[in-house]
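Trying the structure run again after the queue cleared.
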Amino acid sequence: MTKEEHHEYTPEEENAMIEQAYQELLQAYLSSNHRKKVEIIERAYRFARRAHAGVRRRSGEPYIMHPIAVAKIVISELGLGSTSICAALLHDVVEDTEYTRDDIAATFGEKIASIVEGLTKISGGIFGAKASLQAENFRKLLLSMSTDVRVVLIKMADRLHNMRTLGSMRPEKQFKIAGETLYVYAPLAHRLGLFKIKTELEDLAFRYEHPAKYAEIVSLVNETDAHREQIVEKFVAPVRKKLDAAGFKYEIKARVKSAFSIYNKMENKHVGFNEIYDIYAVRVIFENDDDALERIKCWQIYTFFTDGHRTHPERLRDWTSTPKANGYRALHLTVMGPEGKWIEVQIRSRKMDDIAELGYAAHWKYKTGVYEEETELDNWIGTIKDILANPEPNAIDFLDTIKLNLFSSEIYVFTPKGDLYTLPAGSTVLDLAFAIHSELGIHCMAGKISHKLVPISHVLESGDQVEIITSATQQPQPEWIQYCHSAKAQNRLRAILRRDRRSLALKGKNIFLEFLEKKGLQFSQSMVSRLVSNYHLSSEEEFYLMLASDEIDLKAPELQELGRTRSSLLSKILRNPFSSKKKGGKEKDRKKQINRKEVYVLRPGDNPNYRLESCCRPVPGDDVLGFVDDDENVVVHKLNCTTAMRLKTAFGSRLVATRWEGKADSFTATLEIEGLDRLGMIGDIANSVSGEELGINIRALSITADGTVFNASITVQIDTTATLDKVIQAIGKVKGVRNVSRVS
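Done. Tokens:
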């Protein structure tokens, strides 16, 4: 660590810095309306400071600055009290020092010790080196949370501070931590209603994963700032007059989408920065003393905006009568502003705004008097316990069902008796049946909505009133899984189907063992694993099930070649998909060792020192990461590739930071083009790419027209993304072309 990387303090300066940070924490606590328990916080601080004495963070600062910072987030941004502050100050003591849980319990009591223990269980990030450990650590997190939700809230604060200080970590560590943050922590923050924390986590992760794109978007936002303020002020001027005349006390804020949200929209919609219409947003926050008048005032302000403005009919959102599951309440509308810009308007009372930004922590702000710390997340805890009651045993499926159930948008549906059920968006009649009762799901035949029969696969919408039709003879079928969008329905259905699958898989395994015996071959696990990979199956069980169902023929070449020489088809079939081609029996001795602590330079050419993955087809210039396979070869993915997301979270220790060097002509990229059709359009597009100015080789070109509109696809041979940008610009200049975007 060089002196330039952090300021070196004298012991006196360091002590003063630590004490000042602690005093700021204490002041934040004293200004809250929690019952003042300064003495126990003081003891926890002194205890943690002794425990971490002499230890430093990678940035060079004393380690105790981290627990103090986490505790400050806990009180200032989450609104928690003395128990959580003490647990935050002590959260790394059991893991990193010689002190034990019993020491914490003896000194600070069982409640604080229990929270610290919960935090210690899930330390080191959600994910371990293996997929099964991912799920196990995640399950520990959720089990801890269902006992005391403060465990996960303090963990959120810990992750937020780690992200704020991520710059001192090595690049491959930054990838892993940023990947975890986007995969788990940001969605958790969203589900808990911690909007400010969720936005900051996403932007920080985006900044480290795509630094160039982050800088570009921030620059574009800053460049358009003055113009945006003019448009917004012109838009709200007549509304201000109406608010003043009606006697409102209010505040109007202009809001810009976060850099991460802008990037996501640009990527998903294949549009440029200037084409994102909802980059503009206006928030009206009004003061309100009477909760009974809150909704009426929201709708009154709504009329001030709709008078004289064109509204977007499909973008009205009323969260005032039915709040989101995380407690969010507001009235949203989108209206046409100056210069033809759509502007989203969010109307909130001051209380609504605080809850939207701070989540459940804001509820405490509106309690009267002084109170003991407590949790108001009973519904959230109930959801967690419902999932854990019958957890999916497969590790990755467990992660996916958790994300499916907790991190998605919700819909609200009713039974014939008027009971309200909250389900993930996209849920079907079958999901509702299982949500009401497992037996209802097992025997579900159809549904009835507005006196009309619908199949079990029918996707429900908010407000539907659904009657479940059952039959005693109906039994669950494997294809029902594709109709289930909630964790409860999937878990219950899988449990039922698994009983039959076990006996069928056993039959398939016996068929395979008899087949090997006839060929005089010895069964081995690696043999099955490679066959599973060759058939692109998800598990060994799937292979046996297909054998038992005659979906895999024993006469297939893949099975007939078993036992032949290694130069036969077997070596092609059974090769580990992560491994490179082997050139001899002593290859293992000649493996190159990749230094994972240094940036790995990717050299394109006739003999590249890496392998590209077909899932995302990166080219020189793309933001990429390297993954070291079993043979110490570097496999390259684009950073935003879905496979790369999994690798970042599951195999952090095998990642290497990478950069491109030089260029090559062996890369292809595909572009999609949209525009207004005319005679000679395809010729002009081809000429813009392969003409004298660029001279780019076209590998494929197709075009279809529907009336006056055309859609085209073109694959070009390039050397870097810089060349690809020139191709996109050249095509964009062709008369009639409206949009050009890269798809691979």
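Confidence is low (pLDDT under 50) at residues 1-6, 124-134, 368-378, 565-591. Worth checking whether this holds up in the mutant runs.
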